[in-house]
Amino acid sequence: MAVVRLGVIGCGVIGRQHLKVAQKCSSLQVVAVADLREEVARETAKEFGIPRAYGSAEALLDDAEVEAVVLAFPTAGRAQVALQAFAGGKHVLVEKPVAMNADEVRQMIAAKGNLVAGCCSSRHRFLPSAQVIKEALESGLLGDLRLIRIRAIRPAEGPPETPPPAWRLRRDLNGGGILMDWGCYDLDYLQGLLDWRWRPTWVLAQMWTVPSPFLPHVAPGSDAETHVVALLRDEEGLTVAYERGEYMPTASDDVWEIIGERGSLRFKMVPDRGKVIVFYEAKTEQGVTPKVFWQGDESWEIAHAGPLTDFAAAILERRPPKTSLEQALIVQQITDAIYASAMAGKPMALDWEG
């Protein structure tokens, strides 16, 4: 059986998650890992039985046996490493968010040539429920779509036992905060449900940083948003009302609602045991009738395994991965517009020609 020889750059939490997935994937063989903390790279290689460990991305990219790489380190500098990988003829899977901004994504697209390249923002589209929802929309179950409501709020808990990583809420290291960290999942999932055809023409957004009572909960120097609200609309009138927040002084909430002329679907994006999709059907005589449309158990293991196993298959089958760089660019363009509107304090138009 054909095997892709893989290198993983970044041996932190998400890098180790990729290594666990690779161990169970018969079409992958991890031949090298790298981390700026070379001792961590060596320890990781020993733990997972990987033959070589390096103290830099450049050293791993010089390894001729490595055919493909996973970039599992903070966003700043990731595009530069991707460009180096493409120059060396290596396929690339980029962790989410895909880059600091859309211009970096365009540079990667221009450099990749015929190599396979994708982004891990696709994770939640590997869940069975995502396919159920997509098929329901394609069948016309809801009629013409009018509004999609996305609200995912996590309240603050007690102070963390270990200091949070500095990059999570640093604009210079991650390009932003919660919108970069989780918004890429939301927008990728949304575009996947709509078959990547949705192009909002304007956005109005607002953002806030961490509430003052919870400043001790985040790393010093954190300057990025922990709460974002955005209203987006396309030329046909389909509107998305979006809100995501963490460290919130409010109750938890996690719900998607897709509302059409003939009914609506209500569900969670993230995996869960006993996950339920509810269909609210509009009937002339009875009004609105709710019923369970789908129910099942989903695990984070499915979400975490999806991007890497699909990446390996895409290389062997010579096809695009679940979320290609071209699709990731769409997500990043919308993300950049949300940031621009929030900073300007006014609606912003999106230019889909550029």
Which helices and strands appear, and what pairs or packs with what?
Blueprint: E1 4-9, H1 13-23, E2 28-34, H2 38-48, E3 52-54, H3 57-61, E4 68-71, H4 78-87, E5 91-94, H5 102-112, E6 117-119, H6 128-138, E7 145-155, H7 171-174, H8 178-193, E8 202-208, E9 227-233, E10 239-248, E11 253-260, E12 263-267, E13 275-283, E14 287-296, H9 300-317, H10 325-344, E15 348-349
Give an overview of the whole structure.
The structure is a single chain. With 354 residues, this protein is of the alpha/beta class. Helices cover 33% and strands 27% of the residues. The chain contains 10 helices and 15 strands. The chain has helices at 13-23, 38-48, 57-61, 78-87, 102-112, 128-138, 171-174, 178-193, 300-317, 325-344, and strands at 4-9, 28-34, 52-54, 68-71, 91-94, 117-119, 145-155, 202-208, 227-233, 239-248, 253-260, 263-267, 275-283, 287-296, 348-349. The strands form 2 sheets. The protein has a 9-stranded mixed sheet with strand order 14-13-12-11-7-10-9-8-15. α1 (13-23) packs across α9. It is globular and about 70 Å long.
Sheet with the most strands? 9 strands, mixed
Report the principal-axis shape: globular
Strand order of the largest sheet: 14-13-12-11-7-10-9-8-15
**CA gyration radius, whole angstroms:** 21 Å
Structural class determined from secondary elements: alpha/beta
- SSE order: EHEHEHEHEHEHEHHEEEEEEEHHE
Span between N and C termini? Answer: 42 Å
Approximate strand percentage: 25-35%
Secondary structure: number of strands: 15
Low-confidence stretches: none
Averaged pLDDT: 96
User: How many helical elements?
Assistant: 10
Helix proportion range: 25-40%
